[in-house]
Amino acid sequence: MAPGIPPDTTVWILTDGKAGDEVQCLGVAAALGVEPQIRRVRPRAPWVWLGAFAPVPPADRPDRAASPIAPPFPDLVIASGRRAAPYVQAVKQASGGHTFTVILKDPRRGRRAADFLWVPAHDRLRGKNVMVTLTSPHRISAAALAAERAALRPEIAALPGPRVAVLIGGPSKDYRYSDADSARLGGDLGRLARSGASLMVTTSRRTPPALTAIIRAQLAPFAHLLYDGQGDNPYLAFLAAADAVVATADSVNMISEAAATGAPIFVFTPTGGSRKIRRFLDGLARHGALKPFAGTLDGTPYQPLDATPEIAAEIARRFEAHCAALAAPAPEPEPKPAAEPEPAPEPETAAEPVRDPAPDPEPPRSAG
């Protein structure tokens, strides 16, 4: 358990339900050694249209019984996603400052949106209470990977090496998958399988069914595993067994999780993109972790990258300081300085009487 986090600490995870946001929060909570309560916010129109500075809708205010942030308030809130940000500030205020608040990723409300914020290096937000790392937090810990490697699933152990984990995302606000993109990715994966690699493929909820069908057809003649959302997800087991990883560029979370393995990462980039994601990929390339995917494996292992323990340790340190400040006795008010005596009034000077002006002298009389 991370230092400074007592075992009875109450923790909320607060998101709008997006899987990627929730996974980041759960990863941090696990690294802190706490069992969180998951709460989800779902602001409706017109509040959701107001963007980054939207208030908490009246129906969701903490004093409403059905509110997702109804009391009792927790000791710690870990949130992610812009829609959750106003709720975080509402909890801080309603708890009288007791709750320590954490937001993962830039909430677009400035650094005062929470007591502590984490952002990836490709975001621009900076400040004294802002921590910056190259990769994002997640649940793929070194201990979890080691446990999977120590007891490989039989279907994975039966695959000849090299084993390649293939992490397929899907269309996002920055990327789209054209027919040409799907054909290119399927063809490159088929080429890799023909070279003798065993592919362990996992798709996501965003993966277009047509792309899954293309990959299935390309890999049919070769030893492979394909998870398409049915049954137990072998995602962690695939990463643990991987000698290399192929991932699509649309998910920073997936690529960050892959970087925790130390296996070389090969990124497939569909149509689209953004400067932020490009900065992220360039950072991993400089670390020696990542190359573009073109149907071959020509990378080398590197020191695994996992920022989650580092982020959790910083939260623990700041939370400990917050708790100490709450427990400290309130400073006694400073005594007021004694009032200085007012100076004695100066004696009034008697006013001189107003004198009538002297009469004009009479004019001289003429001699008669």
From TrEMBL:
<feature type="region of interest" description="Disordered">
    <location>
        <begin position="324"/>
        <end position="368"/>
    </location>
</feature>
<protein>
    <submittedName>
        <fullName>Nucleoside-diphosphate sugar epimerase</fullName>
    </submittedName>
</protein>
<dbReference type="InterPro" id="IPR009367">
    <property type="entry name" value="Elm1-like"/>
</dbReference>
<dbReference type="Pfam" id="PF06258">
    <property type="entry name" value="Mito_fiss_Elm1"/>
</dbReference>
